[in-house]
Structures are given as C-alpha cells and as structure tokens.
Amino acid sequence: MTDNKDNMPLDEKVVSKCTKCKTLLEHEVVSRNAEGIIEKVKCLTCASQHKYQPEKIKAPRKKTVKPKKIDPERDFELLTERYKGKKPMRYTMSGSFRVEDVIDHNTFGMGIVISALNKQMEVVFSDRPRILVFNRKELETSV
Fold first, then answer.
1. Rounded CA gap, 32 and 83, in Å?
2. Nearest to 7 by CA among 49, 28, 35
3. CA-to-CA distance for 13 and 16, rounded, in angstroms?
4. Is 83 exposed, middle or buried, given 0-12, 13-18 or 19+ CB atoms closer than 10 A?
5. Which is higher by pLDDT, 81 or 56?
6. 2 CB burial (10 A radius; 0-12, 13-18, 19+)
7. pLDDT attached to residue 24
8. Edge-to-edge strands of the sheet including 102-105?
9. Which burial class, exposed, middle or buried, applies to 16 when counting CB atoms under 10 A from its CB (0-12, 13-18, 19+)?
10. pTM value?
11. Rounded to an integer, what distance in angstroms lies between the CA atom of residue 115 and that of residue 100?
12. Is 25 buried (19+), middle (13-18) or exposed (0-12) by CB count in 10 A?
C-alpha cells in the first residue's frame, strides 16, 4: 500500500469535503482515472456521490499587530504635566540635548525630547512629534 491517498485502491476510505454535508467527512472511493488518481467518492454519512475534494491544509494565519494610535495632543499634555517643573532650553542645532529635556523651538514652540541618537532626536510638540538635529557644531559655525 502506498502513502499517497490519491493512489489508494478502490474500497479504501478517504477524508474529503462532502458537497452535500459541507464538511470534511470520511468517504469511500468509487472511481479513479487512468493514472489511478481518485475521481469520485461516496459520503459514508449521507451516501451522496460526488467529485473527490481532498482536505486542504491551511497555512496558519499570521497575527497582525496594529500599531498603537498616536494622539500627539494627549501625549504632549501628559509629558508637559510630567515635566512642568523643568526649565526649557533654547533649541539650536549645535546644542547638546538628552532624553526628557524640555526645549523651546523658535518655530514649533515647547517640546520634550523623547529619544536622542546619532545627532538626531525625536521631540514631541503640541501638534506632532518631529525629528531634529543636535550636536552639529560644523553647521552653526558656518552660518
């Protein structure tokens, strides 16, 4: 006997989707084609004959993680409440800033540094977060 269920001898039982019952059930092989592949089966539950429909193996679904919605106004309010006692520093490209520093930007107003890496920092302002540069000594001296 072979492992391939499509090449099993007649009178063997296979699992197939029954077109009448609309579910995977045990069936009896009724006919095969010239290559020996199952063509028709008979449902052992409802006795209907139909075309062989082998059970399909479904790939597991990947869980998708939805990004957390960002509310810049709420985030800014929470951060300003947390750091309201800190004195704001004037923003310049040549300035040195760290996480949790409060800055005063000429265009965007008050902001709080939430990350700083490789001479770039992310600052939360009242309208939205922005990426700003810092520690750029060469830019300030040429202006």
1. 77
2. 35
3. 9
4. middle
5. 81
6. exposed
7. 82
8. 89-90, 102-105, 109-117, 120-124, 129-133
9. buried
10. 0.47
11. 8
12. middle
Give yes or no for a contact between 14 and 26, defined as CB atoms under 8 angstroms apart. yes
Q: pLDDT at position 3, please?
A: 43
**In which band, very low, low, confident or very high, does the pLDDT at 70 lie, cut at 50, 70 and 90?**
low
Joined tokens for residue 93? 């490209």
φ, ψ (nearest 5 deg) of residue 87: -80, 130
Could you give the count of Cα atoms lying within 13 Å of 2 in the half-sphere of its Cβ? 9
H-helix or E-strand containing 140? helix 137-141
**Residues 34 and 65 sit within 8 Å (Cβ to Cβ):** no
Find where tokens 């265009």 sit.
107
> How far is it, in rounded angstroms, from Cα 120 to Cα 55?
55
